[in-house]
Structures are given as C-alpha cells and as structure tokens.
Write a structure and sequence with these properties.
Layout (H helix, E strand, L loop, with lengths): L1 H33 L21 H6 L8 H10 L3 H4 L2 H24 L4 H13 L4 H4 L5 H19 L4 H15 L6 H11 L5 H24 L14 H16 L4 H5 L6 H20 L8 H19 L11 H13 L5 H44 L5 E7 L13 H4 L5 H5 L7 E7 L5 H15 L4 E6 L2 E6 L1
Parallel strand pairs: 1-2, 1-3
Antiparallel strand pairs: 3-4
C-alpha cells in the first residue's frame, strides 16, 4: 500500500513538474561531463584561479580595474588551498550548481507570473539545456555569471512577493548580484518593468520604483568611485555603432536560433550536413513558438519582456559580446517562450512533439560543445607538459615567444593552441604552482621567417640573463631555448 502511494506521488511530481525533474536528473551528467574541461585562454588570468596571497582580502577583495567582483577572489583563495584537487573542479561544481539554482529560480518566477504548467515546464527545460547556455556552463570562470543571474531572479521574487521590507531586500539582493558580476545591476530596472508588464504593479508604482532602481545604480557607481582603482580602458571595451550592430546580430543568433555552432562556424570542424540536421530538428519548435504566435509579440507582456531582455544584455552589446554573455538574457528568452506557449489551446500534441525534437537536438549539440571544450583544454595541458619536460630543470623566470597563429577559434569551445596554453601559464598548474614564478610573453607576426625571428629573439633574451629559458610557441609545438 505504501509503495503504491509513493508511485502515485512520483507520477504526480513528474506530471506537474517534469521540467524541473528532468533538469535535476540531468545535472549529475552535466557535472560529470564538464569536470574534464581544463582552463584555457583568460581562465588562467581570472581571479578565480588559485590564489596564494595571504593578504588577498586587502590586495584583491577590493581590487577594481575593469570590474569589482569580490566573490571571485574567495573562489581563487579556496582553490589555492589545494589547486591540484580543487582547480578547476571546484569552479565547475559551483557553475553547474549555480545553473541548476538559476533554473529553479526561473521555474518559481514562471509560477509567480501565473504561467501554465505545460509552458512553465517547457521554458524551464529550454533554459537548462539550450546550447546558448553552454559557453557559460562549460566555462571555468563563469561563476559570476550564473550567481549574478540567480540572485537577480531571487530579487525579482522578493520584489513581487514581499510586503514588508521589500525596499530593503530587493536592493540588497541586486547589490549582491552586482558584486558577482556588474550586469546584475540591470535588474534594479528590470524588476519593476517586468512586474508592470504582468500587471503585478500599477503605473504609479512603476514610476516610483524605476526611480528607486536608478538610485540603486547611482549608489553602486558612487561605491565604485570610492574604491581604489587603476582603470585603463581596453580598446575592445570601447562602444561603437558598428560594434553594437555586430554584437546585436551575435545576440539574436545565439539566443533565438539553435544550431551546432562548431559545425557551422568553426572552419576546421565545419560539417554543414550535421549543422543543417541540428537546425532542421530545432526549427519546428521555434516556428510554432515565434512564427505561428507572432501576433502575440506585440502586447504589453511581450513588450515588457523584450525591453527587459535588451536591458539585461545591454552592457554586453555596448562593450564585448561573446556566446557566454547570452546567458544574461536567457531567462527572459525563456519567459517569452513560456508566454507564447501559454497561448496554445489546441495543437498541444504537435507542440510537445516539436519540443521533444528540439530537446534531442539541443542535448546532442551540448554534448558536442562539451567535447570540443575538453579537447581544447587537453591541447593546452599537453603543451604545458611538453614545455616542462623539454625545460628539464625548474626555472623561476620564463619568457614565452608566440608566433602569431591564424588558426580559427570559436568562443571557449575551440581555442587557439597558444591561448589554450595560456601564454605559458598552464605550465604553473602542471608543476603545482612551484615554477615558473614569473612569465612574460610577446607575439611575433606570422610570416615565412617568423620561426627564425623567434629563435633569434629567444637567443638574445637568454643571453641577457634575466630569464632562465625561452619557450617558442608555434601552433601546438613548443620549443625551448636555454642558456
């Protein structure tokens, strides 16, 4: 009798909350897969890398250059206690758990907005598995992204549900999100706009709370101005009309079109047949949601969600936009999908079949993207091991000469070998951060004589005596020049 009762409860749980149930069941598999991904590119330079500085709070916690992300420094400090065990595994655990928490928050937000169970489950599972989130889920240093979003959605729930202390809890949660990543501040404006779009507040409250949101932003700006800072704006971060247009195209492509990006965009891996199959499998669901229900794209609810979507990704569109930055807008894309799916009274069977086809393609694309990330990290590890083996003796100071590589790259999935090598920094991990203690690098323009130029420069550097050896990086090949 007890077993029968448990079976009934399990069936009810699955039938009512299948989107969350499937997301939870998939989480261990996602975590197991991403644990094999190693740091590449600027992962080695982020503040989540192992930190051995005993004065890290004084020197790093309030550090402000391009950004102020104090929680990142704690992650680096914890990883530094046992880097061989904790890095990057600790980072991956935090990212995957954070993505699941963000999924749970999205599910709750959809319930608060009175979205039907079918639409709620579809939108939740869409958010969890969509390939658009993979650049974040597979990254080593994206904890700031997932937790900023998680705190922001909790802030929205507090904003619409709390009666007492609302104007204390809501700004506090937005500030915490912002200390994870700066774009978390955008929800100071998004919360009232989204609530107004779903008729949870009136126009008078909207005007007042938008002003409060602007005040929250100004308080954060004042805090930044009072912090010790040394800001040099990189040209890559300077806004421009052409850059905004280009970033906008990237955003629309990655957010609303589901295709295997590697097979489509990465020239060495290009397979247009498989890319086409992945696209064809996802088109029916996108057509039924966005095209067949296009008349619903022009109403108060959808308008508010689209406006909030643009605000959420706005900082990235104005500066730097990569696949990772799509994540900031994905809950709002999921909200739009839920709203459009909610309007279906008939053809629900056809919609569900199209969604199942979408899920199949999405999970296949996810598996391929994870595999590519694993291979990129492995290349960097092998190059680091090769450099250490050829160097032989521990050397405190190493100079790295990189021959410019025109090998195509794609986000964090397919990284240029020299970037996977981290311009030499991957070698420190392989020696358990014992050596080299100092690494300097320079890049030589690719040409027919580039290798000879690199050797001449390396011999000159070694003869000067400031560096124990020079590593010449030529695509995946590492040569060592010693005294």
């Amino acid at each position: 009798m007890q077993n029968s009762h448990c079976q009934i409860n399990c069936r009810q749980l699955l039938s009512q909350h299948w989107g969350m149930v499937v997301s939870i069941l998939l989480t261990p598999m996602v975590l197991w897969a991403v644990l094999y991904i190693l740091p590449t590119h600027d992962d080695w330079a982020s503040s989540t890398t192992p930190d051995f500085n005993p004065f890290f709070i004084k020197e790093h916690f309030f550090f402000y250059g391009y950004h102020w992300r104090p929680f990142d420094t704690w992650i680096g400090y914890i990883a530094g206690r046992n880097p061989q065990l904790l890095y990057p595994a600790f980072n991956h655990v935090l990212v995957v758990i954070g993505h699941l928490l963000a999924t749970c928050c999205l599910y709750r937000v959809l319930a608060i907005l009175s979205i039907s169970k079918t639409a709620r489950n579809m939108a939740t599972l869409f958010f969890f598995v969509t390939p658009a989130c993979m650049a974040t889920v597979t990254a080593v240093d994206s904890q700031n992204q997932v937790y900023a979003l998680t705190y922001d959605m909790v802030a929205f729930m507090a904003y619409v549900k709390l009666k007492k202390h609302k104007y204390l809890v809501w700004p506090l949660l937005v500030f915490i999100a912002t200390l994870c990543k700066e774009n978390g501040l955008m929800w100071a404006i998004i919360c009232p706009l989204l609530a107004f779009g779903f008729n949870l507040i009136d126009r008078k409250t909207l005007k007042r709370d938008v002003l409060i949101g602007i005040a929250i932003m100004m308080v954060y700006a004042l805090a930044i101005m009072l912090l010790p800072k040394d800001i040099t704006i990189h040209p890559e971060y300077e806004p421009g009309i052409l850059k905004v247009i280009k970033n906008g195209v990237k955003f629309l492509f990655t957010s609303f079109i589901t295709v295997d990006y590697v097979y489509l965009l990465h020239q060495p891996s290009r397979n247009l047949l498989l890319a086409g199959i992945s696209l064809v499998m996802t088109i029916p669901f996108c057509y039924l949601v966005f095209i067949q229900k296009r008349d619903l794209l022009v109403n108060k609810k959808t308008g508010s969600m689209l406006l909030c979507l643009m605000i959420a990704v706005g900082p990235h569109l104005l500066t730097v936009f990569s696949m990772m930055h799509t994540y900031a807008g994905l809950p709002l894309v999921a909200l739009i999908i839920a709203h459009l799916v909610d309007s279906y009274q008939k053809e629900k069977r056809k919609l569900m079949l199209a969604f199942m086809l979408f899920l199949t393609a999405a999970m296949a694309i996810d598996a391929h993207l994870i595999d590519c990330s694993v291979k990129s990290g492995r290349i960097g590890k092998e190059m680091a091991q090769d450099a250490i083996r050829k160097t032989g003796m521990p050397t405190d100071r190493v100079y790295v000469v990189i021959i410019e590589d025109d090998y195509p790259k794609l986000s964090s999935f397919c990284v240029i070998p020299s970037e996977a090598f981290g311009w030499g920094w991957a070698s420190r991990y392989e020696t358990n951060y014992q050596w080299p203690q100092s690494i300097k690098d320079t890049t030589i323009v690719h040409s027919e004589n580039a290798l000879e130029e690199a050797k001449q420069l390396s011999r000159k550097i070694v003869n000067e005596g400031h560096y124990g050896c020079v590593w010449i990086v030529n695509h995946q090949q590492v040569d060592v020049v010693k005294r």
